[in-house]
Amino acid sequence: MTYAFAEVFPLQTETFPPLQAFRPIVRGFEEQLIGGKLAYHLSRTTGGHWVWTGDHLLTDCPISRHELTGLLSELWHSHPEVYGHLEDIRQNPDYRPSPIALAKVGAFGFSKDYTKMIRTILSKERSDFGSVYVDRVHNIAPLVVKGTPCLSISVSSHIVLKDDAYEYLRTRPDPSEIKGKWVRDKYSGFKGEVVDVVGSLERHRERLLSLATNESTREALRKSSDNVPVVRVGREGYDYAVTCLDIILRMEYIDEFGIDASRAQRVLRIAPPDRWRIVLGIARYLRMERLIRWECGSYRQPDVFLGLSSLGVRPNVRLGDGKVVPHDTRILHHLKEHGLYRVAPEFSQGSPIRVGILDSTREPSVQDFVKRLEHEVTSLGIRFQVTGEQYVTGGSRYNLEHAIDKLSADGVDLALGFFHSGHDYYQFKQLTVGRGIASQFVLADTMRNRYAMPNVVLGIVGKTGSIPYVLEKPLEYADVVVGIDIARRPKERLDGSVNVAAVARIYLSNGEFVKYVLHDEPIDGETLPPELLQNMFPSSEFGGKRVVIHRDGLWRGKEKRILVDWAEEIGATFHLVEVIKSGAPRLYSCRSFERGPDGVGQPEKGTTLKLSPREAIIASTPPSSDNATTRPLRIRTESSLTIEEALHSVMSMTLLHYGSVRQPRLPVTVHYSDEIAGLALMGVKPRDLVGKKLYWL
Q1: What is the reported pLDDT for 211?
Q2: Which CATH entry fits the domain spanning 343-466: 3.90.79.10, 3.40.50.10420, 3.40.50.2300, 3.40.50.720?
């Protein structure tokens, strides 16, 4: 028998000291904006634990009204820009902490006492790479499983430059070269992207000292020279002296430092037995300290673990002649035998896909690849005709644009580009997609990969308007399934104005693609105008319909309220589902738990930890490498849609990605959606903002 378990551990709340609850009284200001900062300052001042739960401050620190009044006065004087709106902090003796509030106390309060020891445990996992090292870092987060307060304990990996941010800049004449780099606070572990250089420490020292979170930071600030640059990190805009920062190397600029990318990737990945061994080492220590119990597992809590069968998911698809087959790596073979579900109208009567070749490799293998591609596409019942070929030299935008102009003049349906490097991808896409031409980017290495051909074939079929297959059965609880994502980017010259790109992808309940809708326009502030969201769901198309809406990430601001009100106005039912890609604890499997970490493996596809009737964590797909561990999704649902139905909709829609024979981690409703919206902000978008072809494949 196979068991499932998670890096989730119930808290021993009975060992918690007595807790007091306080409510900040704020005038003309949202208490959420200062709650976390207030908890930090009170922790630092009183020496006790203070945790902001979202509506109250919880503390184990016995404090009198007189002491609290004195602390308030000090905060008003030292940080008027933050606490000027804070009128009082009042005790609430009737407050009873919820399970999530207790989980937050454990994660953000008591667990911090053990950070130094946990870092010592993890230091044994560090790998040296000459000028860099791979560091293992932990994250402890609050979670509630079936009403029980828990902690999730996870481990991630960073490639860290041995020279800190100050040493990095010493060899560069312009401090702005650090912009775009990812950095990590040496003392707190906070990480983010450098968005600006705000000046020198001479101007900012006193302010940073007043905001410093610990004595190590303050000591570093005192010792640093006046000319040390101060940078702004993250979208929230935290300022740091570069002497307090390490540089984290992201894979996209690892070549700059002479690091072997393939070797680094191997070390960054952690296989399930090794990952669980590391997590278990931390958990054993915290259990010894009586903070947590043993992990959540199906051998202890079978009622909170589900699988694909219990969700009612059948991984089958329907083909052109009505045949139902399993979705697996043989899908292209099945399509040759049973036909595409629907051929695009422009090709259904024998008209060919007109293909223009753009070759920057000049490799003989290009012609062989095109011939094999023609054979494969033709075997699916669509003719394939090469109408022209252009060679590109030098890789300049001018040469590329000139070549695509010539192909476009031939009236091509598809531009097939061959390149040595992925650096040409965005220019190629911008120049083709922007002209309304479907395009397929092929690297020279891809031509030599015999497993790549099915992916290229399916991608071409999908992006030229045909539908290879749909779900075996329509979703019973929906008429339409929509995925939306919203990307934001501040405008460079207009304070407070934000460029927004919103993408909606609309499917019928059987998974048949209907169309995409793109909106990109500047707005003031962060709040989306109701009319933008309403335009994505016009009453003429969605009135009276049952609509499952997959949101890529969290709903923000008033988005949920706007959609619910609009659905009521047009007589529709909107089922709102959050598909959260990051931060979920990992899931594992084992056959005999007594074997220890060596017996730990990947969870089966669809393994689910049900947190509540509205929230769950699911392993949607195995990782691409056996030496990595599955990254689950966190799914949240609202309204009358059950969590089982929400999970069913997510897992069903993972079957419909036409860009690969391998099922993606995300449902097609939101797969690649952050890239689609992000590219739209950079100008890579189709000429028609409403269309029926999957141009992003």
Answers
A1: 73
A2: 3.40.50.2300
